[in-house]
Design brief:
Blueprint (H helix, E strand, L loop, with lengths): L10 E4 L2 E4 L5 H20 L6 H17 L2 H4 L4 H19 L7 H8 L4 H17 L5 H4 L26 H4 L2 H11 L2 H4 L4 H8 L2 H22 L6
Antiparallel strand pairs: 1-2
Helix pairs in contact: 1-2, 1-4, 2-4, 4-5, 4-12, 6-9, 6-11
Length: 233
């Protein structure tokens, strides 16, 4: 450009996100996991000094934000990476409760009333989509949503957002294609609420979260067993 050779790079960091030329998130997530594990070490060093409430607040304020930064963007990462992310929260839960690795993870999380990070990411995606649908974000995001086509028939799924055709699994799991599928699965009365607060309350119904929680915790346990991660359930 202008007589200068532009060098190519396999990665580029922008606004705290590390983008890779292959569209994968291993490098970005690994860097944040390293920081999170360092802070887990600090949390562990204070478990005999601080009470449970203070330890929990420290996790919520200094560690979990690392694991959730821009999570709507990189949520199409591999299941292996998602399991590594979840293992940080599991270790934090053990520290907060003073539990050992022999304790049931399901019972531990139920006692703390913590959602899985996977569940929280899915909520973050839907909340952002609600804002996009209701013109609470820049127009360049709204313009990316496929337009509904008019039909002379009164179809049951007439209010659904058209799905985005995808040629690769990587693109299919990216934000808009995957979130539109999740959005269309929501009850129509929830999609049509007027306020963001009402939408959040609808997403927080116990029945929906509990089923997702049980299914995902079992999946995490399976992956950790297979791949032999550092946190054993």
């Amino acid at each position: 450009m202008d007589g200068h050779i532009i060098s190519s790079h396999s990665e580029h960091k922008h606004l705290g996100l590390t983008f890779s030329q292959d569209g994968k998130w291993g490098s970005h997530i690994s860097s944040y996991l390293n920081k999170a594990w360092q802070r887990i070490g600090m949390l562990r060093s204070m478990k005999f000094t601080l009470n449970r409430s203070a330890l929990e607040r420290m996790y919520f304020s200094t560690i979990r934000p690392l694991l959730e930064y821009a999570d709507v963007v990189w949520n199409n990462c591999t299941n292996e990476l998602k399991t590594q992310i979840e293992s940080v929260q599991i270790e934090a839960a053990r520290i907060v409760c003073g539990a050992t690795k022999l304790c049931s993870i399901e019972k531990l999380m139920q006692e703390l009333k913590w959602e899985t990070l996977e569940s929280r990411r899915n909520k973050h995606k839907l909340i952002l989509f609600f804002k996009i649908i209701n013109n609470r974000t820049p127009s360049y995001l709204t313009d990316l949503i496929p337009q509904q086509t008019q039909s002379r028939y009164n179809l049951r799924n007439a209010s659904n957002i058209p799905l985005i055709p995808c040629r690769t699994q990587l693109y299919s799991n990216s934000y808009f294609p995957s979130t539109i599928r999740e959005w269309n699965r929501l009850p129509e009365n929830l999609r049509n609420v007027d306020s963001l607060e009402s939408f959040k309350q609808g997403l927080n119904k116990p029945s929906r979260n509990h089923l997702h929680y049980i299914a995902y915790i079992r999946e995490v346990r399976c992956f950790i067993h297979v791949f032999g991660y550092r946190v054993v359930l």
